[in-house]
Every structure is written in structure tokens, then in C-alpha cells.
Amino acid sequence: MWALIYLDRHPETLQEAKKEQQEVIERRASSQKGLTLNEIKQMEYLPKVIDETLRRGNIGFTFFRKAAADVNIKGYSIPKGWKVLVWPSAVHMDPNIYSNPNEFIPSRWELQNHRLKGRAFIPFGTGTRSCPGADLAKLEISIFLHYFLLNYKLEEVNPKGPINYLPLPRPADDCLARIIKLP
Questions:
Q1: Mean pLDDT to the nearest integer, 53-69
Q2: Stated pTM of the model
């Protein structure tokens, strides 16, 4: 949902993502039916759109971790055994990590422009308890966006409507929209 909303609200990003998907089709052999994993791996711009979407519209509200040892972080002591609540939105929207965090900027994911500081991108959790389906989720998003961008357009009914942020960012109207089939 968020990827479609951000693309709809950022026409230049939409055009770049759509152009890449059209180029995938143009390179494809005429006998080939459907998108291949190799084609997805060759995409350069769509993964940036997906990562930026995951940064802005977190799918996980929070997760807990248990301190395995006494830890001191910036003057705060966390005793061994205590549980720590990690809030991905606080990390992903931190201006010390991401410049202009409230802006949707897929180009921030270009290697030369953005170096993540340790655990600064955690849409699927982190460490040994990271979501085992993270790669599958990104693959599914890539497939969906590929076909959607080539065949449909989203028109939000209330694009300037309010957003509820708790427990997760979500348009207050649940993204009431029209899906238009392209010619």
C-alpha cells in the first residue's frame, strides 16, 4: 500500500520506476512469458523504492530484545536480563541517521550517497531474530510492483488526508482509492 501511495505522490519517482520496468520488458525475449528472478536481480531502482518504503512505512510496530550482558549506551545502564523495546520508526526517522527523514527519497539508497550506521535499517527486525521471510517479502513486493506499474495506476480519493501513526503508519481512510487499468 505505502509503495503505491509514495509512487502516486512522487510522479518523478513513479516515472523512474515505471521506466525501469518497461526496460525489463524491452530486454525480454519475445518467447518469454512473465517476470524471472534474474530480471528482478537486475533491477536497480525498484529495490531503492522498496527500501525507502520500508523505512518510511514500517510494517513492525516494535520488538523486544533481552540484554545478554550489562550494557551502557550513551550513559544509560541496561542490566543483564532486562528487556529492551526497539521501535523501528524511531530509528528509521532519526535525522542523525537519515537526512530529511520525513521525505520519500529512494536515491538515498545509492551506495555512494548513504552509509548505514550499524543496525540503522531494521524493517524486519535484526540479529538472530530477524524475520526469515524478509527476502521473500521483498521479492513479492518487486513482482507486485512490476506488474502494477506496467498495467495500473492508483488514484487516491483523499491524497491529503490525515495519517494515523499508531500502532503503525496508515492513512486514516485506509487508502481509499481507485485502481485504473492502463491502456
A1: 87
A2: 0.90
